[in-house]
Amino acid sequence: MSTVTATTDTTGTPPTTTPRPAYRVTTGGVLRSEWAKLWSLRSTWITLALGVLFLVAFGLIAATRYKSGYTSGTLNRDFASSTGVELSLFGTNFAQLALGVLGVLITAGEYSTGMIRSTLAAVPRRLPVLWSKAALYGAVVLVVGTAGAFVAFRIGSGILSGTPAAMSLSHAGVVRSLFGAGLYLGLVGVIGAALGMLLRSVAGGISVLVATLMLIPGLVTLLPSSWQDDISPYLPGNAGQAMYALTHDATTLSPGAGLWVFLGWTALALAGAAYRLVRTDV
What is the pLDDT of residue 20? Predict the structure, then answer.
């Protein structure tokens, strides 16, 4: 649809009309719009910084505690069989909360402020908004999380030098684990964005995110052992941890299987968000 503007001629000639170019919504335009909105928020910078801080700081604390226990001969039994990768990536559990919460904020926050009406007025097809938000934020967290994982490992490996847990990038599976940790955090960000769009509530989205990743795996331990073995590996949090685990046993998924299961959970969250975005009004 095009609109016309009228111009007034003081000489008495009939007014002429100038057609405006047709308004088109393009994928690139939606991506640029979401990119500008993402980085215009102060919470984006703060929460991304907190995510990296948690990832690196808790990994270094775990490595330092291991080195202290090893040199003093008081190494905790739970840490005795830990590897350099496990200790360096110890902060992933804390970083996922910060980065997942930001994912909820970038989608549910628009509903709380009313900006979603302007967004959907500019993009009437609606779904490109969800895909752009999820893709942009997932890519940002992927880059930030992967960089944080490598930094945590490089510093942690220096602390662990001379201990049985010491490892380097040349060890088998180390690079795959570090990239797996970054990919896991990126997908957590996508799930957070999908939950925010699905529930349209910051508090609700954060509650479901925390319950899914941290509370439900704990509750499953109350089930009979035979049920735990069948359910626990396929829960989102456990499948995601399998993605970057250096080793696995009969009770956990392989990295490849963990990736596919976690991708399935991510797709399910996106499908729910897409369904509500299209079917219900704002």
Answer: 65
Q: What is the Cα gyration radius of the chain?
A: 24
Residue range 165-187, pLDDT digits in tens: 999 999 999 999 999 999 999 99
CA distances, 33 to each of 1, 29, 107 (Å): 22, 6, 14
Which segments of 41-161 does DSSP mark as H helices, in order? 42-72, 77-80, 84-88, 92-113, 115-122, 127-159
pTM for the predicted model, two decimal places? 0.88
The span from the CA of 137 to the CA of 102, in Å, is 9
Q: Assign 3-state DSSP to the chain and report helix, strand, coil percentages, each to 5.
A: 75, 0, 25
Closest CA to 30 of 165, 157, 123: 123
Q: Which residues, listed in sequence order, are joined to residue 75 by a DSSP beta bridge?
A: none
What is the rounded distance in angstroms from the CA atom of residue 157 to the CA atom of residue 174?
11
Helix 174-199 × helix 92-113 angle, to 10°: 30
Q: From CA 121, how far away is CA 99, in angstroms rounded?
A: 28
